Amino acid sequence: MSFFPNYPIQRPTRLRNSPTLRSLVQETRLSVHDLILPIFVREEGPKKAISSMPGHFQHNLLSLKEEIHEIYQLGIRTVMLFGIPAHKDNHGTSNLHDEGIAAQAIRQIKNQFPGLCVISDLCLCDYSDHGHCFVLDTPSQRFLNEDTLHYLSKASVVHARAGADLIAPSGMVDGMIAAIRSSLDESGYTQIPTLSYAAKYASAFYGPFREAAECQPSFGNRRSYQMDPANSREAMKEMSLDISEGADMLMVKPAGLYLDIIQQARKAFSVPIAAYQVSGEYAMMHAAAQNGWLDLKDAALESLTAIQRAGADMILTYFAKDFARWNS
Ligand code: PBG
């Protein structure tokens, strides 16, 4: 007989006693419909594995067909497209015409599966010879904000004409949403929404992506335009500016180390919030799993669940296909 016969009255473990009960009280539930798969398409050359991102490839237009077929069969309904052009220059000219690799890939995907939602990542860095997200003044190497807005305005219309369902500018260029919104509207694409990479941090975790998209800056770094990881109020400022410029959705990037930002964004704004689990987050879990240091599936599911629990309505993740397979 205990001294405290009614103690403890609350026993939280009671609700963990069976898988059914645990499932009943589960607060966050991920579905493949919440996930967006990033894909890379190159203009020239064969399909090529990305060594730092197991299971991911630079596709060409031919292999993209098979890939999209597989993605669709797996139940994934949204992709984020990155183009890798054969020709690069300071003004990203290869992304400014209808035969550019992104435009071609968008058209091909929309012809193949009109129901697949294609988000086009809009930035200069994949198309510029210097790997920065801004047009450069030469030879001073100053970043030219207004010239970059011209590029983004033109490229957004090219992508919309190709059939992109959503335009997602990722360069952290001041005024990018306003510029893109007005050029889309002037060209008759008033119904094409924008997803702004509004809170994009200058992160070490983009490392593998730069191999994937061939956009390593040829000098310097991105700290004069991407955000300082030390700041959170600044993220709120970026996001409210983008909403006032007309952004339909906002993104926080990276995801796993920025759960506080996702949570604040969720509370502060009513637009849908996306979070990007970036290449380094993916590569890190793969590397540990290859060493037998953690279980890949458990780690991936836990990290995605945490991102959703923090408040993300949708998650860009390189695990999207794995997730779909694990759940089937
Ligand atoms: C380009 C861009 C980057 C990523 C998405 N769009 C790289 C960067 O800003 O350096 C990173 C994605 C990832 O790491 O998975 N603006």
Task: Explain the overall architecture.
By secondary structure, the protein is α/β, with parallel strands linked by helices. The chain has 11 helices and 12 strands. The protein has helices at residues 19-24, 61-73, 101-112, 145-162, 176-186, 207-212, 233-244, 259-268, 279-290, 296-310, 320-326; strands at 35-42, 48-49, 57-59, 78-84, 117-122, 135-137, 142-144, 166-169, 195-200, 249-253, 273-276, 314-316. Helix 2 packs across helix 3 (101-112), helix 3 (101-112) packs parallel to helix 4 (145-162) and helix 4 packs across helix 5 (176-186). The protein is globular, with a radius of gyration of 21 Å. Bound molecules: ligand PBG. Residues 121, 123, 125, 133, 170-171, 206, 209, 222, 278-279 line the site of ligand PBG.
Keywords:
10-stranded mixed sheet; alpha/beta; binds ligand PBG; 328 residues; 37% helix; two-stranded antiparallel sheet; globular
Short summary:
This protein is an alpha/beta fold and 328 residues long. It has helices at residues 19-24, 61-73, 101-112, 145-162, 176-186, 207-212, 233-244, 259-268, 279-290, 296-310, 320-326; strands at 35-42, 48-49, 57-59, 78-84, 117-122, 135-137, 142-144, 166-169, 195-200, 249-253, 273-276, 314-316. The strands form 2 sheets. Strands 1, 2, 3, 4, 5, 8, 9, 10, 11 and 12 form a 10-stranded mixed beta sheet that branches. A two-stranded antiparallel ribbon has the order 6-7.
Oligomer: single chain
Can you count the beta strands?
12
Strand content: 15-25%
What structural class do helix, strand and pairing data support?
Answer: alpha/beta
Count of DSSP-assigned helices: 11
